[in-house]
Amino acid sequence: MVMSMSWFIPENEFDIFVKNLSKKRRLFVPVKENSIVRFVEFKDGIKPYFEKQATSSAKNTIFPQTETLFRFEYKKDPKDLKKFSVEISETIEAPETVVLGTRPCDARGFLVFDKVFLNPKHPDIYYQNRREKSLFITMTCTDPEPTCFCKAVGSSPADSLGSDILITKVKDGFFVETITEKGEKLLNELNLKDGDAYSKEAEKVKDEANEKLESPFDTKGLSADILKLFNTNFWEKELAHCLSCGVCTYLCPTCYCFNITDETSDSEGERIRTWDACMFFHFTLEGSGHNPRPTKAERFRNRVGHKFSYFPDRYDGMIACCGCGRCIKSCPASVDIRKVIIDLKEAANESA
Amino acid sequence: MTDREEKISELIKNELNNVDFFIAYGRGYDPIHVKPLFVYEEKDLDDLVMNIFCVHNNASYLKTVKDKKVGIVVKGCDSRAVVQLIQEGLINRDNLRIIGIPCTGVISIKKLKEKMDISRVTEAKVESDSVIIKTSDEEKRFEKDDLLADKCLWCQYPTPVIYDHLVGETIEPSRPKELEYKIVEEMEKEDLNVRFEYWNKELSRCIRCYACRNVCPMCVCQDQCVMESRNPHWISLKSNITEKVMIQLIHAIHLAGRCVSCGECERVCPMDIPIFKIKQKMNQIVEELFDYKAGIDLEATPPLYTFQVEEAKIKEREW
């Protein structure tokens, strides 16, 4: 943690700020395409969209949907064609990256990733490299939506945890404050105006934002409640309308599950890591043909269980959900995870 | 509850003993988000709604509950999926109880989203040809036709084609049939390069969540789908444009003579990719070649279920 320093960007200079950010680094910004908003690499002509929470989370910025772990090539020995060797080449790609326009929930999502991928015993070098070279500039959520529930999972619309820089919209522009050393270093480069004069106004905006949201449920005892209902038909009935697609998991800032496959053609190929989702049948399909989660009821139970029970039980109580509400907003069948939790607490209570 | 909702509720109550459960429509998290409602017991009916936001095709669930006795509430377009599934022998008519709802169209949430901020809707209602949406800050009135899903604008089956009970009066089709393939025809006026660029751009957003497949009432391969299968390994798991294009083309081709134009694939797409256009192109070809529309006639044989040495409109030998 560093001493928080502050800067100010007048409204009409924000475009220049964006452009300057992109000069030496790869910059991701939210962009509106058709009716959706997603994080894409900034280039000239792209118009960032900061008005609403992006449809998809920012996880693709350091956890791409497909990444090559290494390439390989089988080579025959010309002297003895029965013999061949395998050549392997490294492919770590980790350019300096700035992600602008995340919301507190997006930035916090990576704290869940960190627990898994930066585990000191076996850090994931691909993730680690990109994480170290990435910086998150988050915007205070002055307009949290009714689907937002970050307060229930220990956050708030002005939460800076997980971000490097926090930007708060004030009347005449943007109040910018550093959260981490990384953030401070970047801002020092950019020659911005001093922000002290706006700090009071920004604090007020943040306080108001924090007050705008209520918490729809209490996570106390939730982990035990989930385990209590593990072998009941609660899940089958509650999630009967779930389509078992990957919308919720793929838009989620904290869902980090992946698959590793070799994609080969002729004598060469690559080992890739791709997003995977516990909502899919193939996710737990075993080599024998047995599937421990054969229907969507077990699969959705895992999604809720992982986020609110198994993960916090393993990682010092950290809930693997940042309350962004994307899974609610974009669900084709209007599954509402808040309702699932409220109903499951009630069901666990009744079965007590 | 409206009169119509009362009637549906009453019918379901009476039928509940004959089935394992009923699939109707229920209140979602706000007035414009309805959810498919699974009714196991009478008290589940408290949430029942039937309105212009009942967008889902409840027949999407039939493929997953084949061994159950199921009741289902369907609109005209949804009912075509039920018929097609029966035609193909994929579900058993005797296991079904069907409540049909004559329908004058459902809202496209994506169209509404283009016109206003829909994150804070407190009330939504229909007054003759207008839809009124209230949020915490404003009240907006729209022409109903401006908000309807595309499929509703050319709908020829406002009344379900199969049902045990019909709630309300039969509605005669009044929409222009010529509009049906307009989205395809408009696209085909464009230069090939323009179309190529268009699909590259649109499909690049695909995140391979398979919502389009899972919601499709006719995608019955379910867990054996080639989109994910490693054996056969026809598509890699990469997220390149080639895979994304292949996925959509495979989906469309597997639907030849089977797609009932419910448009659910496009509605559920979280990345707003206009994939219904691809299905409509396939449907146009099938209609031209075989004079066939899927899911209309229980007795008809889907064109790809038969074989003729010489098809009337496919002149192989003249090629």
Could you characterize what this model shows?
The complex is a heterodimer of chains A (about 350) and B (about 325). Chain A is an alpha+beta fold and about 350 residues long. Chain A has helices spanning about 15-25, 105-115, 125-130, 180-190, 200-210, 220-230, 235-240, 245-250, 295-315, 325-330, 335-350; strands spanning about 5-10, 25-35, 35-40, 65-75, 80-90, 95-100, 135-140, 165-170, 175-180, 195, 260-265, 270-275. Chain A folds into 2 domains: about 1-65 and about 95-215, no CATH class; about 215-350, no CATH class. Chain A contains 11 helices and 12 strands. By secondary structure, chain B is α/β, with parallel strands linked by helices. Chain B folds into 2 domains: about 5-110 and about 150-320, no CATH class; about 120-145, no CATH class. In chain B, about 30% of the residues lie in helices and about 15% in strands. Chain B has a 5-stranded mixed beta sheet with strand order 2-1-3-4-8. Chains A and B meet through helix 8, strand 11 and strand 12 of A and strand 1, strand 2, helix 3, helix 8 and helix 10 of B.
Summarize the structure.
The complex is a heterodimer of chains A (352) and B (319). Chain A has helices at residues 14-24, 104-117, 125-132, 181-189, 199-212, 222-228, 234-238, 247-251, 296-314, 326-329, 337-350, and strands at 6-10, 26-33, 36-41, 66-77, 80-90, 97-102, 134-139, 165-170, 173-178, 193-194, 258-265, 268-275.
Strand residue content of chain B: 5-15%
Helix/strand-derived category of chain B reads alpha/beta
Average pLDDT over all residues of chain B: 95
What is the count of β-strands of chain A? 12
Q: Helix-strand pattern of chain B, N to C?
A: HEEEHEHEEEHHEHHHHHH
CA radius of gyration of chain B: 20 Å
Mean pLDDT, all residues of chain A? 95
The profile of the biggest β sheet of chain B is:
5 strands, mixed
Portion of residues within helices of chain A: 25-40%
